[in-house]
Write a structure and sequence with these properties.
37% helix, 23 helices, Topoisomerase I, domain 3, Rossmann fold, alpha+beta
């Protein structure tokens, strides 16, 4: 009897599938049962070959050898995971295997993972596709009952292949051109360059900003405040000091009379469910998690615990067929602080309104919501609990009644000048009850929350004081990870574009995808193009110079938006992949010529007085996400060493986080907030003896094991090639 082979993307997912399919016999790299054999990739097992696979001359990076344009890009097995590839290939080639089910992640990159393995292994057996949004037993069983023909996803594979090949042709050529031209470790790519350009341009706006003084006039009564309003425009800003002082003189000591009182009933519905980008934004704002960190936590909650649905989604809605599963999902989360809300929702018929159920707003996957799997909350780490809590509360809030309040607006007259006050009176907290403990999520304007006494037209208000406040206009804020994610999702709001280009950007969902944005942000940190100051992201001299050196088209968000639009059309069968590839080759040729002809210079302005122990050239000091390090300026050498590293260990004197400096036995802990300094070996011995639990939560073996298991390779051919530049 022939068997069916199931190919998963990771070992943890493979084990979940094997459990449902009753594949209990363990083997190296696969699990087997009576009907199914389940095996797995390790992220990508196959990638595009390096340039030197086409010609020996490409082993040495030379400007005159560019552009590199092989007739057909070759696939190669990734050396580090070749053992698992051979296991997968052997199972696929078994004579008793009659059919293969692709069960990699349900998305463009997941399709590429499987198809490249199948192509490299030269398998010609019938293929089917498992397409699911969560890893619960029920979801897997339902998915196997409704397997799709693999041909249904051929266009998705073609789009993924075009993306990978375009990144190779454009990214590797421009990166080599920049690196050779300026003898510096420089990289460029359509998403990375566009994101970095927004950060650099924002820094220029801040630098060029000239603040202006302006004035506000406030009238304070016994219980509330009123603000002066311009009769013409309704604004309260006065840019002329003399005018402001004249108004103050005019109204001082005069009677304040209520001119109008308006009361409006208002309703506010819950924000939409989470997609990955919105979740990453909130996690950064509330918990200061990086985009990469949030994605990693989500992967664990999805794969290991199976309590949340597929994370890499760009939809904030669920489909009508998911509505029937809501009661079961609510029962699964009916514990702790959530219980009273789940019981309230289950007591009535669930109102599947357009605020969270809309088939027209769903792509490959619906919004992130809880699964039907119950969880012991005590098993979750603090960071896992934080992310789970965000998703569950948003899921509950969309099904709870709206927040209702009465908004009162008062208009008053003081000797012919208009003053206004606004206040809200809560009628029903509705969905906001879910967030009663989270003051960080309550972002109403403080002045709108003041309680106004009952007033009517003609009443006099007792004014205790008139204040003239001098303020200054502020420059635009620097990006943090939350706002950078917003800018990558909606770049048309942050970049000056014509209306047609802005429309294109809006339709394509910005630059990058929900799956790649976290990796892009990590990369610009790891390449030292940006550094962190508190939560703010600041471009380094290297980042600023790179944006000056990168050809103009490559740093525009419009380029990647156009790519994504064309790739989407390819995946829908509406565009020829060959036409797209030819365009990319032509574009790569133009970019390389632009770099070759450039008269620009690159200057290292972070040189230290220390020489590289390997090659003797002076080293550069750079600030990474986790601390400061010295890096050899010669890209061919690639030597680097830590100068200082941020830790989670707290200063015993001021309780701020300590830095660790130096290498080996010479390491010392230093507090940059106070004068504390101590040798690391002495500090560790002293505090381990005093408290055996020092930093235990962060270094527990169990958490390390889970995190390691979920560290997938970056799914891009360009990243695979760039990893060999010794940039890390």
């Amino acid at each position: 009897m022939s068997k069916i082979l199931v190919l998963a993307e990771k070992p943890s997912v493979g084990r979940d599938l094997a459990k449902v399919l009753r594949c209990n016999r363990k083997n190296t790299g696969y699990l087997e049962g009576d009907k199914y054999v389940v095996t797995w990739a390790l992220g990508h097992l196959v990638t595009l070959a390096d340039p030197e696979a086409y010609d020996e001359k490409y082993k040495n990076w030379k400007l005159e050898d560019l552009p590199m344009l092989p007739e057909r890009l070759k696939l190669v097995v990734i050396k580090q995971s070749s053992r698992q590839f051979n296991v997968v290939k052997a199972q696929m080639n078994r004579k008793d295997i009659g059919e293969i089910i692709i069960a990699t992640d349900s998305g463009r990159e997941g399709e590429l993972v499987a198809r490249w393995i199948i192509e490299k292994a030269r398998i010609k057996k019938p293929l089917k596709r498992l397409w699911i949004s969560s890893q619960t037993d029920k979801s897997i069983k339902d998915g196997f009952k409704s397997l799709k023909p693999s041909a249904q996803y051929d266009n998705l594979y073609r789009a993924a292949q075009c993306r990978a090949e375009a990144d190779w042709v454009v990214g590797l050529n421009v990166t080599r051109a920049l690196t050779c031209k300026y003898n510096a470790q420089l990289t460029a790519g359509r998403v990375q360059s566009a994101a970095l350009a927004m950060i650099v341009n924002r820094e220029k706006e801040i630098h060029d900003f000239k603040p202006r003084d302006y004035y506000e006039i406030t009238a304070k009564s016994d219980k509330f405040k009123l603000k002066w309003q311009n009769k013409k425009g309704g604004r309260g800003d006065i840019f002329d000091k003399n005018s402001a002082e004249d108004i103050v003189k005019k109204i001082k000591g005069k009677i304040c009379t209520v001119a109008d009182v308006m009361e409006n009933d208002k309703r506010k519905f819950s924000p939409a469910l989470y997609d990955l980008t919105e979740l990453q934004r909130d996690a950064n704002k509330i918990f200061n998690y990086s985009a990469k960190q949030t994605l990693s936590i989500m992967q664990r909650l999805y794969e290991n615990y199976k309590i949340l649905t597929y994370p890499r989604t760009d939809s904030r809605y669920i489909s009508t067929d998911v509505v029937d599963t809501i009661p079961e999902r609510l029962r699964a989360i009916s514990l702790g602080n959530y219980k009273k809300f789940t019981e309230e929702i289950l007591r009535k018929k669930i109102n599947a309104h357009k605020g969270f159920v809309d088939n027209s707003k769903i792509g490959d996957h619906h919004a992130i919501i809880p699964t039907e799997e119950r969880v012991q909350l005590s098993r979750l780490s603090t960071e896992e609990m934080n992310i789970y809590d965000l998703v569950v509360k948003r899921f509950l809030s969309v099904m709870l009644p709206p927040y209702e309040y009465i908004q009162t607006s008062v208009k008053a007259d003081i000797n012919g000048e208009i003053f206004t006050a606004r206040g809200n009176v809560v009628k029903s907290k509705g969905w906001k009850r879910v967030y009663e403990r989270e003051s960080s999520l309550q972002n109403e304007n403080e002045e709108d929350n003041q309680v106004l006494p009952k007033m009517k037209k003609g009443d006099n208000i007792n004014i205790r004081s008139i204040e003239l406040n001098k303020l200054q206009t502020k420059p635009p804020a620097r990006f943090n990870e939350a706002t950078l994610l917003s800018a990558m999702e909606n770049p048309q709001k942050y970049v000056k574009l014509d209306s047609e280009s802005a429309k294109t950007l809006g339709e394509t969902g910005g630059i990058g995808t929900v799956a790649t944005r976290a990796d892009i942000i990590e990369k610009i940190f790891n390449m030292f193009y940006v550094e962190r100051k508190g939560k703010e992201i600041i471009p380094t001299s290297k980042g600023k110079q790179l944006i000056d050196l990168v050809p103009t088209g490559l740093k525009s968000p419009l380029l990647t938006a156009k790519w994504e639009k064309e790739l989407e059309n390819i995946s829908l069968g509406n565009e020829n992949p060959g036409v797209f590839s030819k365009k990319m080759i032509g574009y790569a040729v133009k970019l390389v010529e632009d770099v070759k002809e450039s008269k620009d210079k690159f200057v290292h302005d972070n040189l230290t007085g220390k020489k590289c122990p390997r090659c003797g050239k002076y080293m550069l000091q750079v600030k990474g996400r986790n601390g400061i390090m010295n890096v050899c300026q010669d890209r061919k050498c690639g030597y680097r060493e830590n100068v200082s590293r941020f830790t989670n260990v707290r200063c015993p004197e001021c309780h701020k986080k300590l830095e660790i400096r130096g290498e080996g036995q010479g390491q010392i802990y230093v507090c940059i907030n106070c004068s504390f300094r101590e040798k690391a070996s002495v500090f560790n011995k002293r505090f381990k003896e005093a408290n055996n639990k020092l930093n235990k939560k962060d270094v527990s073996k169990y958490m390390k094991k889970i995190k390691e298991e979920n560290k997938a390779p970056i799914n891009s051919a360009l990243a695979e090639a760039l990893s060999k530049l010794k940039l890390k």
